[in-house]
Amino acid sequence: MYRNQLSPPLFPCPWACEWGEDAYGLWQTLNYGGVRQVFRWIEPGNFMMGSPADEEEREWSGGGEGTETQHQVTLTQGFWLADTTVTQAFWLAVLGGENPSGFQDSPEHPVERVSWDDARRFIEALNADVAGLSAQLPSEAQWEYACRAGTATPFSFGNNISPEQVNYDGNYPYAGAEKGVYRWKTVAVKSLPANSWGLYEMHGNLWEWCRDVWQVDLGTAAVVDPLTQGDGTTGGGRVLRGGSWNDFGGGVRSAFRFRYAPDDRDHLIGFRLALGHTELGPAAEPK
């Protein structure tokens, strides 16, 4: 697994209010209506997507055998990825109206109870108002690459996790680890440690929508810049990644995959933004 040293084609972007480089790499900030969202530069590279056959608790409820088939993925272009999921403050700044979230402890909690269609509506409104932003959902491969942050272990934090690192159901730890706290709700973004690429709560807290149409088995062949667009035979639905505050330890692993229909809303689901690539065209609607 590696990351090459290719830089973004434009830095900073015209919409950025602040930018720089720190221990995690390049970053730039969007200020929208007083709400700030940091984007991290994710360099191109390759990685093994999915999980090895001996990884504990693999495929235990992700949608069927083969959901975590391991295969090499090459991402030929870097991309910007939000360092957090979209917050309730950001959601209301863009769309106004009522807050759909069930856990409204603070504006810095992630927005939830949003469907894939809701996320698309948010993105369309944001892009219409910020010239050159080109926000979209990450592809599933982009999401896992960023979650792993150069690791090949079940979690970006190593072979196991604790509730001090990840918001999940601590009553059901991974692979025989000690039990821990179960919070029963989301935590505010940036409450828990970032991975080594500066991305927060990629494991747990909320499931995150991806662009891809669900496909049970992604195969074993090496692929380049994949995006599953669907042809009516994939079973429909949109990909979810990362697990939630309500999931067992095994359900928040880097490789774990799930799906919902694009109009489903749930208090377990949110989303984070990527900044688009022209080579990844709009994914087909699920049938």
UniProtKB/TrEMBL annotation:
Domain Sulfatase-modifying factor enzyme-like: 41-274
GO molecular function: formylglycine-generating oxidase activity
Domain of life (superkingdom): Bacteria
Annotated protein name in UniProt: Sulfatase-modifying factor enzyme-like domain-containing protein
